[in-house]
Automatic annotation (TrEMBL):
<dbReference type="InterPro" id="IPR001647">
    <property type="entry name" value="HTH_TetR"/>
</dbReference>
<feature type="domain" description="HTH tetR-type">
    <location>
        <begin position="5"/>
        <end position="65"/>
    </location>
</feature>
<dbReference type="GO" id="GO:0003677">
    <property type="term" value="F:DNA binding"/>
</dbReference>
<keyword id="KW-0804">Transcription</keyword>
<keyword id="KW-0805">Transcription regulation</keyword>
<dbReference type="InterPro" id="IPR009057">
    <property type="entry name" value="Homeodomain-like_sf"/>
</dbReference>
<feature type="DNA-binding region" description="H-T-H motif">
    <location>
        <begin position="28"/>
        <end position="47"/>
    </location>
</feature>
<keyword id="KW-0238">DNA-binding</keyword>
<dbReference type="Pfam" id="PF00440">
    <property type="entry name" value="TetR_N"/>
</dbReference>
<protein>
    <submittedName>
        <fullName>TetR family transcriptional regulator</fullName>
    </submittedName>
</protein>
Amino acid sequence: MRELKNIEEKILDRALYLFGKNGSTNVSIRTIAKEAEVNVSAINYYFGSKENMLSNVQEFYIDNTILAYSELDNEELSDEEKVILCANEIMEYALRYPGVLVMQREAAELEEKDEMATKIINTTKEMHNKLNNILSRVIGSEGKIFEYDRMIFLSSILHPTNGSKIEEFNEEFMENKQVRIEYIKYILNRLKNNK
């Protein structure tokens, strides 16, 4: 995950977080300002309007999505290493920004009417296609069986991050990269050995 460089990014970061916490992009400017530890005038200064801020949050979301999947392009890694590191980034991203699913859901609802929503959907599809191609090679399945394997894999990495208070997923699991990587390796091995 990238580090925040300035106040503007901190506002975007906290807005995306609150969208997930609220389950919608319908969060007041005052609430976002309080969470970002800035005053409302800072939001107006950087973005001018809530609509402009939302557009910037959407761009921030796209940039972070591309970054989360960037390990898939690392030619120095094996396919399995690419999937493991990418899955860890996806988990970390979903933990940090519960608004990820909100952004995708709302983009899907507006895809035909909104250029930015279309960009979100297309970027997400492009990243998923990259992951699917490499994941298929790693687990050695294709067609309908791969679709099932892919659903199991994605559910396994996203479920622990969905914010539910499930005892099996303790804080160490969520906060410790090495523990998450061991978990991802376990899931991949189960899928590979299930052939």
